[in-house]
Amino acid sequence: MTNLESLTVKLFADGADLDGIRSLAALPHIKGFTTNPSLMKKAGIKDYKSFAQQAFQIIGDRPISLEVFADDFAAMEQQAKLIAAWGPSVYVKIPVQNTKGQSAVPLIKDLAAAGIKLNVTALFTTEQVAKVTEALAADVPAVISVFAGRLADVGVDPVPVIEQSRRIAAVKPKAELLWAATREVFNIIEADRLGCHIITVPNDILGKLKNLGRSAQDACHDTVAGFYQDALSAGFTIE
Asked: Which of 42, 49, 93, 100 is catalytic?
């Protein structure tokens, strides 16, 4: 039976709420942190650099991925270099393409060659994974984030994509494959079985990890008891 201690995949918390980051940083099984502009907007972040500096103080030397927000590649490059200079634990998130559908691979190659640790994000196909992997530097740590959950959202089985991506990325020994867009606790089990190095997990899913390793019978009992207690508290009657 799977439990936290038996997992080889690293759990990274995905969010931008500093109080939430502080709570999760106290948990030894949280090995790193990621965020993105959408999560930062939701958390009400106004000052990007101030948020990052506060996060660094909370998480210590654990890795954190911070994303550029420009849409043209020259501005992305400038932002990436500034963000990378904020601290040694920073991975700069670069989307695999911009909003015009133009590939970021040339920029990824240049940044990797400059020694910047990257988290290449929003990958959906093995073709993208292959091109990104080729662009990465062999001696610079990097993360390749495949959006498995969003693939499932459009009816595509992410498992074959993750399996092939793992084989592709293996040619760069310092590149780690990340399962992104986690939708349920079982995705953690899937990512672990498939040999992913990292899975990003939002706070609501992390809250369910207390159930990991419990039996199906325990889950059945809790479900039935929940229905019963809710019916009692609602005062339902059938005349």
From this structure: 93
